[in-house]
Prior knowledge:
Elements: E1 3-7, E2 11-12, E3 18-25, E4 33-39, E5 45-51, E6 58-60, E7 68-73, E8 78-83, E9 92-99, E10 114-115, E11 119-123
Parallel strand pairs: 2-11
Antiparallel strand pairs: 1-3, 3-8, 4-5, 4-9, 5-6, 7-8, 9-10, 9-11
Amino acid sequence: QVQLVESGGDQVQPGASLRLSCAASGFTVNDRAMTWLRQAPGEGHEWVAALYRNGADKAYKDSVKGRFSVFRDNVKNILYLQMHNLRPEATAVYFCGACSGYFCRDPSPSRYDYWGQGTRVTVSS
């Protein structure tokens, strides 16, 4: 059974760091392009960080460049999103998605082959 399970979300203060995890089962993350998406309260989905299928090429939403990092652990079959210097505008439910293309930067989870249920991140003082 294919499954993506996100974890690591928390309520933190501005400037804090968090690491989100996306555990995959039923497929291997190094066979897919993997993407982190998020949905802020009252807003639509947006892509945040994309890890290309080769595991080396990456793309980030402009507002998170230099603060967020996406990477995967092929042995554990987990995708990560390391977030530093979090800002209140990062408050959202974060989802991971997997697609069969070389990379995926579509904001809609329904465009992905698989996606998880999300983990909530709240950044406030």
